[in-house]
Write a structure and sequence with these properties.
globular; 16% strand; 37 helices; alpha+beta; 37 strands; single chain; 1243 residues
Length: 1243
């Protein structure tokens, strides 16, 4: 319709008509944007100019009625971060609208609605405010006729048919639809264009239709619903109609002048459509336009294909649910958000109108006097699960504040199932469950959880991750609470109702969790130091008890007890009255004695009065991308279906804004349209758009996965072979359609992601694993080929069956691993006719070859990355190790104590010297010097305590990480018959494997895998032959081929634990097969050393000082570990000897360690020093750490003596107490002793 194929002159009859026709060089680039969220609105605003320049029409289809209500439906209060791309586009398109939000007033550093972070290059804003900004601009364009807006459109792209569809219940007048009905109203094979000509609405009853006793539905405006009533009485004389409610509503009394809308029984919606009249776009053969009448009851859930004509369709509808055209790049983890709003936030928690920092010298010392008006500071925090669980239990059992108890009781009472409170009340079950949560919280795998804080002027937003244990606990609790209802529910509707109530209970359990989390953070001192005293208590539920208004703090919200419809906030508290404001900002005064109920602080809905439905939510989070950047609509005319924003690729909301890729998508599609106007061929535009969007998708996902091997808080790539192949299959098609290089489908960043999921670290060069992985991948490729062949209607009958038969025949070629040769052999003998063979070869087999090629690329990339050490969690792991991890520097650090102890001796001598001057000046200076010695000696005590703790930590590390390695190394030297005499519980190899298998089993439970029966059977078989290298290799074979490459391929975290088990088996095999000459003498010596080490481990454990460190230098210890007794042990160790050949019963730990080290050296010497070299170094480090710990205690006692003596001396000088002076004079010998100790032991 757009191409002119004839050359016209003025003599042609069409000449005059052409004069009134717009002539363009390229087809008009009309465009439909589906979705009126931030992404859809920005795409509409940004692309309109290019669309209009081409002569096209811009249409916006919005599912909500935001434009009809002036944006009043925007209520998402989550705060998003916008990068420089968004900032640039918003400034360009909105102009002063952008400045009104983001530019602060004179003298201020931040505006109220939009927070600016200039040092980071971001701005922050709530989604609802961002939507309002863009809605205003879009409305301006709509009012000027530049675009067309259709509210409540409800249209959606259908991937299977590659069309835009709409359910019959959402059809509107002038909607174009495609039907297999011709212009005469007869059925036909092809599609024809029809349009919705008229909607026939359900008519309300007239007065004459009403009869006493009839049941009907009456529309109630305040409820916005039709509710069932029965007409019970009519009084014509009094003009009175009485309707009795069939629900719990009040009866209605009406007259003929104010009669409500009365509908037939069963009517569901006020003003609902009863019939849809459609009309053919083409004129029929008999003249006129054919019409058809469709009953809404019949077409309500029928999908209609919209006739979009020559138009681009851009879908921006957000995250899809259950989509089969999206690639889930990562596994899913539970997360949640909580949004707080109100005067308490804007006045009490921060004040964006003030300067960010105060002035003056004290304000520069921000750790002491931080005047920052933002309470959050760094928006990344960590919170522990255990204190949150304790807070939850505290809230539901608090007898002084019983609001949570009353909340759950009222929640059930007002539901459809008040009987749940009969017998054992629901709150008792919740209390028991919270006690269980407190008990299990210390064993959570993720003991600390990441949180993200954002804040704007009056909004406070907390996003956080959840442990899977909590999520499972919550689901089990919800199941238990509704179990009586579940057992009674028989039909579908009742089961659905119980399911909804279960969701309500889970939502309020999440509230309890967030309440505990907010209180844990508030009392945990993690906010900015200068703001921690200004943090108010935030409430997530309303109060159920009356309190006096005067007892509430400024900023608190409340409702009047005798009139709870309105919500108020306290602005000022005066002497006799309190100034409050309502939701409309109207100021009034109330008495302090007014009885009120405190209101919760969750974000409000657009009316400002009711709680927002999206103020608190929990949901699974994962990364996904669309299979296609765009799909062809009409390639001959150059029209496409495109997908932008979360519909194209979704980021991690905790790592970056949920709008990360949306801005780039809008810009790229605008370029696509502009290039059409410039005459760029469609294939070139398609190619460029595909390349740049694929790059953007990779960037979006990478911001949430980091280096793809995150140790904590990152999502990791994880997907099944078949799921990844679905994505790659679509990419091959897209690259063929856009004429791109098929060898470059996987860019480097996508190779990283695929390798992270398919090839666990540590298995890159393992031939057994790689071969098994290839076979699994290839099997999934063939299953995809068959599935696509079944969809291909052009293939003849029996082709799919022939393909499956042929696949079984070439099993030997398949196992060889040469897949190019396999496909050649497969296709050559495929038993189908030549035409079908050609089609299969050009389509399915061609793509299969490419998929196998990409698998090889991924393996080669993983191998190279491994060799160049690029498969790391972050660059932190590439940093060189500190010197003290290679060479012990204890003695070097200990030399520092010599200076302080020598100085203490000098100060003590000075203080004594001043006492010899029998003047008041001498007494004063003597007291001053003695006081300074108190500070100096205290510093010595704290420093030596830290030094001692460091040595103790080294001993703990040896026990936890190195002791088992020493036991395994010695055990491996023992000859096989002797090893077989040891029970499994004394076999260090078994112990090591049991630990790692335990971690693996816990991970399976955490990630919701089933009981690994086959794995446990293989592990038991290994333990039965734990000293046999062949048994170890057999178990490794199963690990690499069955478990890593197949059963647990989906989760990289689980695979990581399996790789650790594999590595332990490899170490076992190496030690047991190491070329060591196991002589009778050496084996006997090894057995003696092993038994000695086994006994020593238990003894060592009893001397370790475990537990938290307080104030950086204090740790709780048993009496026997006090510094006084440790000093005595040091002197005793000088008197006690150690033995190389046996354990001395009365020896100290240091002496026994020295004896074991000497015995290990002797055993190593028997084997030409080829064994135990690392273990000997570890034992030597343990010896010196123990000895230095003893000496540290001795130094501490010396410093402590100086500390006490200096205090006595200072008191004596101040009070002129002669007796204390004499005592202090002689006690000052402690300083001299400390100096001597420093000289002989530390220098």
């Amino acid at each position: 319709p757009f191409v002119c194929q004839k050359e016209y002159t003025a003599s042609d009859p069409e000449w005059r008509e052409l004069a009134r026709t717009k002539i363009v060089r390229v087809p008009p680039q009309s465009m439909i944007v589906i979705g009126g969220g931030p992404t859809g609105l920005m795409t509409t605003v940004h692309c309109t100019e290019a669309v209009l320049a081409s002569g096209g029409v811009m249409k916006l289809f919005e599912a909500r009625d935001a434009f009809a209500k002036g944006g009043a439906t925007f209520e998402r209060a989550q705060i998003v971060r916008l990068d420089s791309r968004w900032i640039g586009m918003l400034r360009y398109h909105l102009g002063t609208g952008f400045e009104d939000v983001y530019i602060p007033a004179s003298g201020e550093t931040d505006s109220q609605l939009g927070n600016t972070l200039p040092t980071q290059g971001f701005v922050e804003i709530t989604i609802k405010d961002l939507e309002n900004m863009l809605n205003v601009e879009t409305s301006k364009m709509w009012s000027k006729g530049l675009i067309k807006v259709y509210t409540d459109a409800r249209s959606q792209y259908d991937a299977e048919s590659n069309t835009l569809t709409k359910f019959g219940e959402y059809l509107k007048v002038d909607d174009g639809i495609l039907r297999r009905v011709d212009e005469n109203g007869n059925r036909c094979k092809g599609y024809n264009s029809w349009r919705v000509a008229e909607l026939i609405y359900t008519q309300a009853f007239q007065l004459k239709d009403l009869t006493v006793g009839m049941e009907c539905g009456i529309y109630l405006g305040q409820e916005n619903a039709i509710l069932p009533y029965r007409l019970t009485a009519v009084d014509i004389d009094a003009d009175l109609y009485v309707f009795k409610s069939l629900t719990d509503k009040e009866d209605l009394h009406a007259s003929s002048t104010n009669l409500p809308s009365v509908y037939p029984k069963g009517t569901k919606k006020h003003g609902s459509v009863e019939k849809v009249i459609i009309e053919s776009v083409k004129k029929g053969s008999q003249g006129g336009y054919a019409r058809d009448e469709l009953k809404m009851s019949a077409i309500k859930k029928e999908k209609f294909t919209l006739d979009i004509g020559h138009t681009h369709v851009v879908e921006a509808i957000g995250k899809p649910h259950g989509s089969n055209v999206h690639f889930s790049v990562t596994t899913y983890e539970p997360y949640g958000v909580c949004c707080i709003q109100g005067l308490k936030v804007s006045m009490g928690m921060h004040n964006f109108g003030e300067k960010r920092w105060g002035t003056g010298l004290l304000d520069d010392i921000r750790s002491q006097n931080d005047q920052n008006t933002r309470i959050v500071g760094d928006f990344t925090k960590m919170v522990r699960s255990e204190p949150i669980a304790r807070k939850m239990l505290e809230f539901v059992t608090d007898k002084r504040d019983r609001n949570w108890e009353m909340h759950f009781t009222e929640l059930v009472r007002k539901s459809d199932y008040p009987e749940l409170n009969d017998g054992v009340p629901i709150i008792d079950k919740i209390v028991d469950a919270c006690r269980l949560l407190v008990d299990i919280a210390p064993s959570f795998i993720r003991k600390t959880l990441q949180t993200r804080f954002f804040e704007t002027g009056d909004n406070y937003y907390l996003g956080m991750e959840f442990g899977r244990e909590y999520d499972n606990w919550k689901n089990r609790l919800a199941d238990e609470l509704v179990d009586p209802l579940t057992r009674k529910a028989k039909d579908k509707d009742s089961k659905k109702s119980v399911g909804r109530f279960r969701g309500v209970l889970m939502h309020h359990i999440d509230r309890l969790w967030y309440d505990g989390c907010l209180e844990t953070i508030r009392t945990g001192d993690v906010y900015n130091p200068g703001a921690k005293r200004r943090i108010p208590r935030l409430y997530l539920i309303n109060s159920y008890t009356d309190v006096k208004l005067g007892s509430l703090p400024v900023g608190e919200s409340f409702r009047l007890s005798n009139d709870p419809k309105g919500k108020y906030e306290i602005v000022l508290k005066g002497v006799g009255q309190i100034v409050v404001r309502d939701v409309e900002g109207m100021i009034s005064k109330m008495k302090k004695s007014t009885l009120v109920k405190r209101e919760g602080n969750l974000t409000r809905s657009p009316d400002g009065n009711n709680e927002s439905r999206v103020s608190l939510a929990t949901f699974p989070v994962g990364h996904y991308v669309n299979h296609r950047t765009m799909r062809l609509n009409d390639s001959e005319k150059g029209y496409v279906f495109a997908f932008v924003g979360d519909e194209q690729a979704t980021p991690h909301f905790m790592r970056y804004s949920g709008l990360t890729g949306a801005c780039i998508n809008a810009m790229l599609f605008n370029n696509f349209v502009k290039q059409a106007n410039e005459g760029v061929p469609f294939i070139d535009r398609f190619k460029l758009y595909s390349i740049e969007t694929n790059w953007s998708n990779g960037e979006v996902v990478q911001r949430g996965t980091g280096a793809n091997y995150g140790e904590d808080g990152f999502l990791r790539p994880g997907f099944s072979y078949s799921h990844g192949i679905d994505y790659l299959y679509s990419k091959v098609i897209e690259y063929r359609e856009s004429d791109q290089d098929l060898d470059g489908i996987l860019s480097r960043d996508w190779k990283v992601k695929f390798a992270a999921s398919m090839i666990p670290r540590g298995m890159e060069l393992n031939p057994r694993f790689v071969r098994s992985m290839y076979q699994q991948f290839h099997q999934a490729v063939f299953e995809k080929v068959v599935a696509e062949a079944k969809k291909d209607k052009s293939l003849g009958d029996g082709v799919v069956e022939a393909m499956e038969t042929r696949y079984k025949e070439v099993e030997i070629e398949r196992e060889s691993g040469d897949f190019d040769a396999f496909w050649d052999s497969y296709l050559s003998e495929l038993d189908v006719d030549e035409e079908d063979k050609r089609k299969v070869g050009d389509e399915q087999i061609f793509i299969a070859r490419r998929l196998d090629q990409m698998c090889r690329q991924i393996v080669e990339f993983a191998n190279k990355s491994y060799l160049y050490n690029e498969r790391v969690s972050s660059e932190l792991y590439n940093q060189p190790k500190p010197v003290d991890s290679i060479v012990d520097d204890f003695a070097v650090e200990a030399q520092n104590f010599a200076n302080s102890l020598t100085m203490s001796a000098a100060f003590s001598s000075g203080a004594l010297a001043f006492t010899l001057i029998n003047t008041s000046v001498g007494s004063v200076w003597s007291g001053i010097v003695a006081f300074l010695n108190i500070l100096l000696s205290f510093g010595t005590m704290t420093n030596v305590s830290r030094y001692k703790l460091r040595n103790e930590e080294a001993r703990i590390i040896f026990q936890d990480e190195k002791m088992l390695r020493c036991l395994k190394a010695v055990f491996a030297v023992i000859d096989q018959p002797t090893r077989a005499t040891y029970l499994l519980d004394k076999n260090p190899f078994t112990e090591d494997l049991n630990k790692k298998v335990g971690v693996f089993l816990n991970a399976l439970k955490y990630y919701d895998f089933e009981e690994p029966t086959e794995f446990l059977e293989g592990f038991e078989a290994l333990k039965a032959n734990i000293n046999e290298p062949k048994a170890i290799r057999a178990f490794q074979e199963k690990l690499s081929s069955d478990f890593l490459a197949d059963k647990y391929q989906l989760s990289s975290y689980v695979q990581e634990y399996l790789v650790a088990i594999y590595a332990s088996c490899e170490e076992m095999h190496f030690l047991l097969t190491k070329s060591v000459q196991r002589t009778a003498v050496g084996s006997g010596e090894a057995k003696t050393l092993f038994d000695r080490l086994w006994r020593f481990r238990e003894k060592l454990e009893g001397t370790l000082q475990r537990g938290p460190v307080r104030f950086g230098f204090l740790k709780k210890r048993s009496v026997t570990q006090w510094d006084l007794f440790a000093s005595l042990q040091y002197f005793y160790s000088l008197l006690c000897c150690s033995s190389r050949s046996r354990t001395v019963p009365v020896s100290t730990i240091s002496n026994e360690t020295l004896g074991i080290s000497r015995q290990a050296r002797h055993l190593s010497g028997l084997h030409q020093s080829q064994i135990l070299r690392r273990e000997i170094r570890d034992l030597d480090s343990l010896y010196w750490a123990t000895r230095e710990s003893y000496i540290g205690s001795l130094i501490f006692m010396a410093g402590f003596s100086v500390f006490l003596v200096s205090i006595v001396f200072t008191i004596a000088r101040i009070g002129s107490i002669r007796v204390l002076l004499d005592v202090a004079f002689w006690a000052s010998l402690a300083s001299a002793f400390g100096a001597i100790l420093a000289t002989f032991h530390l220098c």
